[in-house]
Every structure is written in structure tokens, then in C-alpha cells.
Amino acid sequence: MVKDISKLRKDFPILDQKMNGEPLVYLDSAATTQKPKQVIDAINNYYLHDNANVHRGVYELSERATNQFEQVREKVRKFINAKSEREIVYTRGTTDGLNMIASTYGEAFIHEGDEIVISYMEHHSNLIPWQQLALRKHAKLKYIDMLDDGELDIEDAKQKITSKTKIVSIAQVSNVLGVINPIKELAELAHKCGAVMVVDAAQSIPHMSVDVQDLDCDFMAFSGHKMLGPTGIGILYGKLNLLDKMEPMEYGGEMINLVDLYDSEWTDVPWKFEAGTQDIAQVIGLGAAIDYLNEIGMDNITQYERSLVDYALPKLLSIKELTVYGPHDPEKHTGVISFNLDNLHPHDLATGLDMEGVAVRAGHHCVQPLMKYLKTPATARASFYLYNNKDDVDRLVDGIIETREFFKNGTI
Ligand code: 7TS
What we know:
With about 400 residues, the protein is of the alpha/beta class.
């Protein structure tokens, strides 16, 4: 390991400030992560020295920008172990990628009576595109059940995935429960039935080593801003033979081979999916984020986050009146932990924590069907990343206890 994980906090100057008079503890990385100086510098350097539009200039500056832009594609390929860099499509984020699959692949290959299988824990981005596709096509949307601790019920998956299934789309990690889903097993079930396996990797890619060939998934979508990169950039991975069969989602500059008055021809994958001027600086920023993560090592990041969860879970579980959702076994968890204090709305809990400088998210987390399943309108959620430490866990636990006491006694 080149970088010492306990010393990297200095790379994130934003963390060194006070909120409500208390040092900031940022526990909302599932919403978006903070950015290290290295990523911010890479974006600055690009604008200061290398800015030009890509794929269209023959002058040196444009070639330099194009080279950097395309080098990140290779970096992403390597990061997820895709076979070819042509399987890497730049998107705006996970939402964009999942919508793209539903409205291109889905539009072409889903027909009346076909089935699409998802789960109750899917983020709205991995639910609504399939729900609307099913409505348009008169196809059926099916939900895999969950076990009591929030794990997917694989026996139920075996029942629900059938010869009628054309698409199975599941999050590798839930953004509420932190539970890790068995994608490889699900891909096997999907393929046995002739369906494609789509993976929402928004909450997994930043936290663990992901190998698309080992998982044997057909598509995968994720966001740069949840993995130390900037907003506005995401990746859609797709197997080349599938991407080749798909129509572009958008038409315009740079995605064509030939344009005639009454018809046009598309250029090759992946560029045929990248119409118009791309988010070049954001791509460069994503490349710097991948370099940063690689320098630490994804397995080290997983291990470090697990040590935080190992430390946090027993402390949280010991707080009287606190319900902790999802598995209580740290092995089955990433650094996302959702909870509720009895008789207190999670917004009040989050506000109490904010008074202590602790930033957590409260709400339905864009997973309303899961809230219904858990029989709660909302939860509070702490999500840890590589810049958090055990002091942050202590501040969270103390903040919850103080908020509980405040609402009991009226003082904080
Ligand atoms: N899928 C999952 C599992 C997510 O957690 C999110 C965002 C998305 C898709 C959408 O990603 P986007 O980058 O396109 O917006 N999740 C959250 C969250 O949990 N809190 O804020 C955003």
C-alpha cells in the first residue's frame, strides 16, 4: 500500500472545518463523496493547460485533450476488468446509464408478456426506468423478496427468474441497508434463463474491487461523484456484442459515421452513445479519482471500511431505542448504516446530529418501496468512506445519544 489510509484526511481540505461550532464529521458519502486535492488539481490543470474539444481538432492542444479523455476509458476498463475499452461508455451518472439501457436495449428487446426482475431495495434509478418500460411494453415487473435481515432471498430469486425473464437488474450494494447482493449467482440464474444481468454499481464500485468478467454481468452503471470524482460523469459498461446491437439514445455531433439528408449511419461503439460535447474535465477528474483509489488499493479500502463498521455496529446496536436496519453482521455490510430512534422522526435525529457537527442523510433515500417494506416512512443514514475514522464513529454515537436525551429532556 503506497498511501497510509489513516493519513489521507489531509487530502480532503473540506473536512477541516466546523459546522455549528463543532468539527465536521461527514457521514453522507453514499449521497456523494468528498474530493481529494489530487482530483481537484487534475480538473484545474486540465482547464489551465489542456482544454480543447475532443475528437475534432488536428491541432496539438485538441490531440492532447483527446488523448487524456481516451486514456481514462482505458483506466476505467482496467479498474473493472472489462475485456475492451470499447465496452466503456461515458454517461452523466448511474441514473443516466440505467435509463440508457432501459430505453435502448429494453425498448428493442422487451415485448408484451416478457418479465423484468428487480428487488424491493432498488434505488428509484433502478426501478422507475424498468417500471415505465414494463408499462409501455405490457411486460411484467417482478420483485425478489428479502430475508428478515435485509439480504436478498436467493430461493425466491430462483422462483422469480424464469424463461419469461428478459432482464434482471439489481444493485450490488443497497444505498439504505448497506447489504452486498450476490451478483455472480444472480447473473448465473439470469443467463440460465436467457436473460441479461444489469448491475447498479453506484454503491459498490467506490468500496470494493469489482470485476465485470468474474461477475459475468451484461451491463453495469455507476457514478464518478460517489467514488471521489466530480459530478456529471458516470460509466455504463456493456458487453460489446450487446452494445453493438443497441440504438443510440441521443443523436447529434460526434456519434455519426455519415449523415445524409434523409438517413444517417452511426459510428462505432462506444462513441455512438456519446453525442455532443462530452464532460471532458469531469472525465479527467474521474481518471484522477481512479488513480487515487488504485494507489490505496480497493481491497485495503474494503478492509478499512469494514473495520469502521466492525467498530460502529455494536456501539449502535447497544443504544437503547435505536433500530438498526439491514444485516448486523459486518461481513455482509459496506459502510452504509441506516437507523431510527423510537418516537423520533429521522429528520429530527439528523438535525440533532447536525447541531453536533455530524452530517447524515435522513429521508426515504430515493427507495420508497423499501421504506414501505420496512414499514417506516424514512430512516437516518450514516455512510462511511476512506476519510472517516473511529473518532467519527464515536461522534456519531455520542450525537445520537445526546439527541435522544434532548428530545427526552429538552436540552442538548
Ligand atoms: N443507484 C444507487 C444504488 C444509488 O445509491 C444512487 C444514488 C443512484 C443509483 C443514482 O445515482 P446518481 O449518481 O445517478 O444520482 N444514491 C443516493 C443516495 O443514496 N443519496 O443520495 C443519492
